[in-house]
Amino acid sequence: MSMHRLLRRQLDAHFGSTSERPPRMEKLLRDIDAEYRRAEQDRDALQRALALLADLAQRQSVRTERGAAPVARPAFSRSMHRLFEQAPFGVVVSDTSLEVTSWNAGAERLFGHPPSQAVGRDVAGLLFPEADRNAVRDELREMVARGDPQRWLRPAVTKAGEEWTCEWTLVPLRDRRGSVAGLAALVQEPLAGRDRFALALEASGDGAWDWDLRTKRLWVSDSWRAIAGVAQLGDEPTAWTDRIHPADREHFDSAFAAHVEGRSERFENEHRLLHRDSSWRWVLARGALVKDRSGKPMRVAGSLMDVTQRKAVADRMLHDALHDPLTRLPNRALFLDLVKRAFSRARRREGYRFAVLFLDLDRFKAVNDGLGHAAGDELLVQMSARLHTCLREGDTLARQGGDEFTILLDDVREPSDATVVADRIHQVTTKPFAISGHEVFATASIGIALSAPTYTRPEDLLLD
User: Fold this and answer.
1) Residues 136, 142, 145, 149, CA torsion sign
2) Residue 156 to residue 110: CA distance in whole angstroms
3) Distance CA 175, CA 93 (A)
4) How many CB atoms lie within 10 A of CB 202?
5) Among residues 88, 89, 81, 45, which one has the least CA distance to residue 60?
6) How far is CA 282 from CA 225, 228, 274, 387, in A?
7) DSSP string spanning 141-201?
8) CA 229, CA 278: separation in Å to the nearest integer?
9) Where are the domains of the chain?
10) Using CA of residue 376, residue 380, residue 385, residue 389, what is the dihedral sign?
């Protein structure tokens, strides 16, 4: 059998020549070798190799030279340890009481504990944050009871007290009777390490977050806290959700639940987040759900982007697109949209009526030609200010262009309501305007159109 050179050298030293191996062991070794070869180019295959190697290690852990009864505590032999020394991942083996029985060099590199300080220790107490330990013990005991492998993405604690989010592949070890005799854990390099993805996220200024649905714990990156302007943040999800603007909270909860329940492909939500200086920052949260092998939701992890400036620019662009740059009044496009909404209200509410006033300034061309365009612009600005004083609450003044203004009168109960407003406009326009050191008189011609079933388009109302 052609075999990976490192695997062949180590297994020959441990098991002897090919002729000495039983057929069942020979098949198992072929399977392991195939996984080793694929593992050099495939990270997932490396994890599958762990399951096979863990099974092989367990088989050797229960052998004795004289065929004695199986040993209940799984451990890697010295030859098997050599097999794992060059692996780019940590391997931790425990018995059914969750006490560490084997600890490879990769685990020492990740967590800082030499084997002498790790073997014999409780797995949860040694490797996990204090707040997680009870939940970890419960999940590991359940795995021992069920005998199913699992994959985790959760924080671990190093000897120095640092927390790193790691990827865990947990494989039950069985004795010859098929009973679970312990657990083997493959631990990948910390996801928080400075790999290309972490560097890209850090360079972008975006924050990272990881929401554990089982333990109800939240981890956020330094960049996430910087967006909120805080040095510390609690590890409860409410540390985030309580900072969301009340008007945005329901939409956030709905979007998050929809993704966890499988009703959306990814989580994406834009909301206002309370900053330490009491201001509100617009943020865009994106995330993806991580499930265990049974399909049960485990956690949601993603990014947080500060979009406050982008939001402000977009709002300004939208405002400018719908408002007159000179008077800052709604322009024709926005006014027509408001009239459409008034038509919709009239169809829904019996008895609701509205009116549109169309104003054309008298003598505007004479001012423009005689005093210049700057004077004409100043007259338009002053006229818009006076017209505002004539409106009722809920009415809208807009500039159509040139010397034309329109007014939408909301909820007109009687035709006289519109004429009252028109009379006020005549009164305020009889007084002179001070323009470029001159007294200018500019009155307005006013047309009134009341809503009626005969009108179907806002443009028809304006034409009348």
Assistant:
1) negative
2) 10
3) 14
4) 15
5) 81
6) 14, 10, 9, 36
7) HHHHHH---EEEEEEEE-TTS-EEEEEEEEEEEE-TTS-EEEEEEEEPPPTTSS-HHHHHH
8) 10
9) 5-187, 196-313, 322-463
10) positive
From CA 287, how far away is CA 209, in angstroms rounded? Answer: 9
Cβ(384)–Cβ(399) under 8 Å? yes
Return the amino acid letter for 282: W
Phi, psi at 161, each rounded to 5°: 90, 5
Rg (CA), the chain: 37
CA–CA distance, 428 with 206 (Å, rounded to integer): 54
322-463 to CATH, choices 3.20.20.300, 3.30.70.270, 2.60.120.620, 3.30.530.20 = 3.30.70.270
Q: Which helix (H) or strand (E) holds 121?
A: none
> Going by C-beta distance under 8 Å and a sequence separation of 6 or more, which residues neighbour residue 304?
206, 207, 208, 209, 220, 224, 227, 283, 284, 285
pLDDT in tens, the chain (464 residues): 445 555 555 555 555 555 555 666 666 666 666 655 554 444 444 445 555 555 554 444 444 334 444 444 444 445 555 555 656 678 898 999 999 988 888 888 889 999 999 999 999 999 999 988 999 999 899 888 888 888 787 888 999 888 877 888 888 888 778 788 888 888 876 444 444 555 566 666 788 899 989 888 898 888 899 999 998 888 899 999 999 999 999 999 999 999 999 999 999 999 999 999 999 999 999 999 988 777 889 889 899 999 998 888 888 888 888 899 999 999 999 999 999 998 888 888 888 899 999 999 888 888 888 888 899 899 999 999 999 999 988 899 999 988 999 999 998 888 888 999 999 999 998 889 998 888 888 888 999 888 877 777 777 677 65
Query: Percentage helix, strand, coil, to 5, in the chain?
Result: 45, 25, 30
Q: Do domains 5-187 and 322-463 have the same CATH topology?
A: no
Least Cα distance to 195 among 88, 37, 84, 35 occurs for 88
**C-alpha to C-alpha distance for 29 and 7, rounded to whole angstroms:** 9
The answer as to CATH 3.30.450.20 being correct for domain 196-313 is yes
Q: What kind of fold does domain 5-187 have according to CATH?
A: Beta-Lactamase (3.30.450)
Single-letter amino acid, residue 26: E
Give the Cα separation of 160 and 172 in Å (integer): 29
